[in-house]
């Protein structure tokens, strides 16, 4: 069972939790997370992690003598609400930077607002369109879905699996993944011979999977976030589908295994390294940050730190570095974010440039497999 920080608490409460007893000027940072609603499995660990890291920074003396003040709003995973709340952060709370939102659709919805206001945004979402083409004020920490697709296709190519079926959710994350799955296929000698979708609230994908079973597909790739992919896993088992099943990084947490149960066994997916941090070689440049995050999160929340909380850890720490180097004005933060080089975070090693505000390469992902209700590295 996952442990929440608290039943959802207000932004005002979060502010107090981060800066109680500090009368000196603070640096106000905004955050938009899907703490409730269908994307809560993303937003809850992101919110918990952001509060945890801000508290750690403040207990260590803040940044150049100033404490961070974190203002968190729950979007419920709704793009319209995210748009309303980002303007509240900009106009009412007057934040210097914003982290989040949790989903691609929400992030795309607020880009024009932060660009117009000149407030740096570090999204925690994966869609490639968030930062491609590069926008002046928008960065991201979640690994691009293009890199996730490449990791899966590398494996398929190595194992001479050339015909795939794809089943993608009909939201921003799924649409972006579908575009990448189709765009990259030919490069790896792969043919997409079945292309179907499902709705974010669908509870049975048997019809789509029956088509896959009747096709000549050698592998099935499902692209979505919980709970849909767990339904796909269960339906595929019920229908006796034997071809390898791959998921996206959108389910890279123990929550997916809990939802899919025995049907998760053998499923492979690309993931950030955090869920296999303990088995990484000592030479891995991310290992120190990964283990620190995992241990701190477990100590505070009695649950495993995951891929999604890691996006918020990276966002806060990237802001910390930018503020240390360039001050806390929005323009200074933006300029220093863009100059970030070789930051070994949770999602990977980040190097931003004027043309690359995603900052990660294909090595940010490893391929993992579910075995005995746990993750193992695919060799």
UniProtKB/TrEMBL annotation:
<dbReference type="InterPro" id="IPR028081">
    <property type="entry name" value="Leu-bd"/>
</dbReference>
<protein>
    <submittedName>
        <fullName>Branched-chain amino acid ABC transporter, periplasmic amino acid-binding protein, putative</fullName>
    </submittedName>
</protein>
<dbReference type="GO" id="GO:0006865">
    <property type="term" value="P:amino acid transport"/>
</dbReference>
<dbReference type="InterPro" id="IPR051010">
    <property type="entry name" value="BCAA_transport"/>
</dbReference>
<dbReference type="InterPro" id="IPR028082">
    <property type="entry name" value="Peripla_BP_I"/>
</dbReference>
<dbReference type="InterPro" id="IPR000709">
    <property type="entry name" value="Leu_Ile_Val-bd"/>
</dbReference>
<keyword id="KW-0029">Amino-acid transport</keyword>
<keyword id="KW-0813">Transport</keyword>
<keyword id="KW-0732">Signal</keyword>
<dbReference type="Pfam" id="PF13458">
    <property type="entry name" value="Peripla_BP_6"/>
</dbReference>
<comment type="similarity">
    <text>Belongs to the leucine-binding protein family.</text>
</comment>
<feature type="signal peptide">
    <location>
        <begin position="1"/>
        <end position="23"/>
    </location>
</feature>
<feature type="domain" description="Leucine-binding protein">
    <location>
        <begin position="26"/>
        <end position="371"/>
    </location>
</feature>
